[in-house]
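Give me C-alpha cells for this 199-residue protein.
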Amino acid sequence: MEAALPRLYLARHGDTDWTESRQHTGRTDLPLNAHGEKRARELGERLRQFQFDRIFTSPLQRAWRTCELAGFGAIAEVDDDLMEWDYGQMEGMRTSEILIDRPGWELFRDGCPGGEMPQDVANRADRFIAKVQSLSGNVLAFSSGHIIRMIAARWFGLPPAAGRPFFCRPASVGVLGYEHDRREEPVIQLWNYVCESPD
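Here you go.
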C-alpha cells in the first residue's frame, strides 16, 4: 500500500519587539519578547495533540526558540531554507517608510535591493517543499511570516507574487495537505489559526 502523502504544519514564530512595531525582520536575529515566549508555549499546547514524523526549524532564534518553547527543540532539524526573506536595504523598515521612496512597492512582486528577489525566496520554498514531499505523515516547520507565505503559494505551484494573500499572524499555524490523498489536489486544511488565551 502506498504511503500517505505528507501534511505540512507551518508554525510562525512568536512575537518579537520588531513584530510588534511592524518592522521588516529578515536576517536580524532578534529574540522573542515576553509575549512571544508566552504565545510560543501556547502554540506548543495546541501542537502536542498531533504526532509528527519530522520537525524542522529555521536557524533564526525567534523560530528555534519558538520550537523549543513549544516542546519540540530536542528533535527538530535546522533547515536554512526556512530562513526569513533577506530584506537587504529594507531590513528594519516599516512598509509605510519604504513606500515614501518607492510608491507602489510590493514585496512579493518587487523584492528587496541588496537582499532577495521573489524568485530567490521561491527557490528556497521549492527546495523545502520537495523535501516535505519526499516524506509521509505529518511534518512540522517553524519559520517566519513571509517565507511561510511563499511556501503556501508554491505548494499550489503559484508564481512568487501569489504569496502576498497568505497572511499569517505570530504564533499561528497553517496546514497544507492534499484532498483525496492525490498530489494533483493540494489544499489548505487550516490557515492563520491562533488560539487566544486571556492574559
